[in-house]
Design a protein that fits this description.
4-stranded antiparallel sheet; 16 strands
């Protein structure tokens, strides 16, 4: 029962604030700010709250001069997205080092980086494909190995090396035949067709359950209600993103830091379908875009990347919101944009109408509110100037190619090039403003591929993979204590009820600030700043009525009783009555957090004894001034469990994890997704430790919780099912546990 811990130690670290990558680079924002200050009051008029977006775009279009061209050239000059032969050699050598250390997954990623910089049809790229095929052979991915061998041959693999690659090809074919084409290490994928079959169709809301209906009120706007009782775990929405853009890392695409061995989501996921892949195919012209298959690569090129590729450096500088807005227009097609956008002036006036059919189409997307009246005039100017500068640099043939699907009913407009630019730029501007409130962060588990060869644990955490728009999901209002959970598979989102919802109750989604993960004041400020509303959900209403003086996360350094208060803390023990300021104790907490982070680095470098010693010291230090329920203790216990699991001491690992689960349950609730993740780890540890009865109980508990939040097809749920099936093969277990 050597169940390898390959998908463990996950951390939910969702960042609900607007990422810097979503906005233009600071230098462009600074330039726009200076230009804004130079405008007269009259020139600022087109950006006032009641101004029309076409008017805003036109004003910036007329302002563009040679100065902007020079600024953009300077901004783009430091960004590197082209093919670089020297990078091929660098990443190939780094991949060879990982391969020699038997760090095969890390080697695959680095060979893929080399391939992305290679020029098609050269020996360099052919050798990199051949090297990557060796990785997949050792991983047991024989089909993928054969595909890379074919690609190496297509790019001109040298004759002098043919014997080695042909032998690998023969061995792979033989292994495939012996294993009946089933590789034990093939990555699991959720069956979306099976998931969609769970959904009870809704004639008014496509991709939504029939248990939902659309409502409207002046205070809430459009929102979704339960038109019948909804059960715990019921699938409510299963929707493909209308548009999505994978979030790049500017720091790894600069000429000052061109070659970075760090692994980003851009390296691990298909830029078209967002499926995880260790064998991506690069764009033929740039080094940024990568795809899981030739089909995805061709579809992306035809529908949007053929145009985006020519301005990829500019899009990197302008940020993900601008990129997503452009891709929205490209995916839609100019004719459809013209047809729909010409009616945009009346769209927001019709938001109270609820009898039309809402679907994941462009018409529904345009109807999403932009809150144009709430954006500051300067922010609208920044977005309009960005849109205008982008339109000025787009390829000449862009508008003509966009006319094909579907054609407009007004051919006269197609003869007016100025009108074409006006509509295109205004649409991009609208979508940039919409994204401020309607962008959905698509998250994925990002695994650490630099693991030690002796480690049984592949470290991973949750990270933002892409920015997307889901028109139906966007109809859900926010709550800091939502009754739904959201999960992702590729570019699809699944929304499930995380508790029973009664008929007539509003169905609510958390936009990021959750009552269990963020304090009231911070939630209120963030929601007001990004979404332009004051949250009045039940959680906020209740917290607002509580006394300002609350228990802190600290204990008295003298008597170890709890400290109470905000800025000024005092001991609740009347016999002690010790007082101190929060600012005086925060440096001690920061030092402790740094020590825990240092221990984590030691774990990653396989310095287990040193890490355990440091973590044990952190526990002792924390008990001197932190409350016993402080989540830092949970983090320390989690790291200790990881260390003991890596050493094969499953009993000690389980002991630490149980303590971590107790803390997580107190903070987030016994049925929370956080508890589900911790139980998943404990199930793996107990399974490896052959604690059969305990393992089965934890497996079932983890499965039930994760199924509610992620659905039955989730990879973790499937892994738990596999462990359960394995345990049921033990004599006597089936009688006791099968139900």
């Amino acid at each position: 029962m050597g169940y390898i811990l390959e998908k463990s130690w996950r951390r939910l670290a969702l960042n609900c604030s607007v990422l810097l990558m979503e906005l233009p680079v600071v230098d462009w924002q600074t330039y726009a700010h200076r230009k804004w200050l130079q405008l007269s009051s009259q020139e600022k008029g087109p950006f006032s709250p009641g101004s029309d977006l076409k008017e805003s775009f036109s004003a910036c279009w007329s302002l563009l001069q040679q100065e902007e061209e020079e600024i953009l050239e300077r901004l783009c000059s430091d960004l590197s997205v082209g093919k670089e032969p020297r990078a091929v050699l660098f990443y190939k050598e780094e991949g060879n080092k990982r391969f020699a250390r038997k760090q095969y997954t890390a080697a695959a990623v680095l060979y893929s980086k080399a391939i992305s910089h290679g020029t098609p049809g050269t020996e360099e790229i052919a050798v990199c494909f051949a090297n990557r095929s060796a990785v997949f052979f050792h991983l047991g991915h024989y089909s993928t190995c054969l595909e890379d061998i074919d690609r190496a041959q297509e790019h001109g693999y040298p004759e002098r090396l043919q014997s080695k690659i042909l032998q690998r090809q023969e061995n792979s074919l033989q292994n495939l035949k012996q294993s009946d084409n089933k590789s034990p290490r093939t990555e699991r994928k959720c069956d979306l067709n099976h998931t969609q079959q769970e959904l009870k169709g809704n004639p008014q809301l496509s991709n939504a359950s029939s248990s939902l209906q659309l409502g409207y009120s002046t205070s809430k706007g459009r929102h979704l209600l339960a038109c019948e009782d909804i059960a715990l775990g019921e699938l409510l929405i299963c929707e493909d993103a209308y548009v999505h853009v994978i979030i790049p890392d500017r720091d790894t695409n600069t000429k000052t830091n061109p070659w970075d061995v760090s692994v980003t989501n851009c390296d691990l996921f298909c830029h078209h379908c967002l499926q995880r892949t260790l064998a991506p195919l690069p764009c033929r012209r740039c080094s940024l875009a990568r795809y899981c298959s030739s089909a995805c690569m061709e579809q992306a090129w035809q529908h949007y990347h053929g145009i985006e590729c020519s301005v990829s450096r500019l899009l990197l500088a302008f940020g993900v919101f601008c990129h997503t807005a452009l891709r929205t227009v490209l995916l839609t097609g100019y004719g459809q944009v013209l047809k729909v956008f010409s009616d945009k002036t009346s769209a927001e006036d019709q938001l109270c109408v609820v009898d039309w059919v809402h679907s994941s189409d462009y018409k529904s997307l345009v109807r999403l509110v932009s809150h144009s009246e709430h954006h500051t005039a300067e922010h609208k100017f920044l977005c309009a100037l960005t849109s205008a500068a982008l339109c000025q640099r787009l390829p000449i043939g862009l508008l003509r190619s966009m006319r094909a699907s579907p054609p407009t009913d007004d051919p006269a407009l197609l003869d007016d090039e100025v009108q074409e630019v006006q509509i295109l730029g205004s649409a991009i501007l609208l979508h940039m403003l919409q994204l401020h409130c309607n962008a959905q962060a698509v998250t994925a588990i990002h695994e650490e591929y630099e693991e030690s060869t002796t480690s049984l644990v592949a470290r991973s955490n949750s990270s933002r993979l892409a920015t997307a728009i889901f028109p139906i999901l966007s109809l859900l209002n926010h709550s800091c204590d939502p009754n739904t959970s959201v999960s992702f598979q590729g570019r699809s989102v699944m929304v499930r009820a995380n508790r029973a919802i009664r008929k007539g109750e509003e169905v609510l989604h958390c936009y990021g600030p959750h009552k269990l993960r963020m304090k009231f004041e911070k939630r209120q400020a963030l929601l007001k700043d990004q979404y332009f509303f004051t949250c009045q959900c039940n959680a906020c209403t209740l917290e607002q009525t509580l006394t300002d003086e609350t228990f802190s996360d600290f204990c008295c350094p003298k008597c170890h009783s709890l400290l109470k208060g905000n800025d000024e803390l005092h001991c609740v023990n009347n016999f002690c009555a010790h007082r101190l300021r929060r600012d005086d104790i925060l440096p001690r907490l920061q030092n402790l957090q740094r020590a825990v982070h240092k221990a984590q680095e030691q774990l990653q470098n396989n310095h287990l004894d040193a890490a355990v010693k440091r973590l044990t010291s952190c526990l002792s230090e924390g008990k001197e001034f932190l409350s016993q329920n402080h989540m830092l203790f949970g983090q320390v216990m989690d790291h200790l469990a990881q260390a003991e699991a890596s050493r094969g001491d499953w009993a000690a690992a389980a002991k630490h994890l149980r303590k971590s689960i107790q803390l997580v349950s107190q903070r987030y609730g016994s049925s929370s997704i956080e508890v589900g993740h911790e139980l998943f780890k404990l199930a793996q540890v107990l399974f490896n430790g052959r604690e059969v009865d305990d393992a089965m109980g934890i497996i079932l508990r983890a499965r039930d919780i994760l199924s509610v939040h992620y659905g039955p097809d989730n990879s973790m749920v499937q892994e738990l099912q596999e462990m359960r099936t394995c345990l049921l093969e033990i004599p006597g277990m089936r009688i006791v546990w099968e139900n």
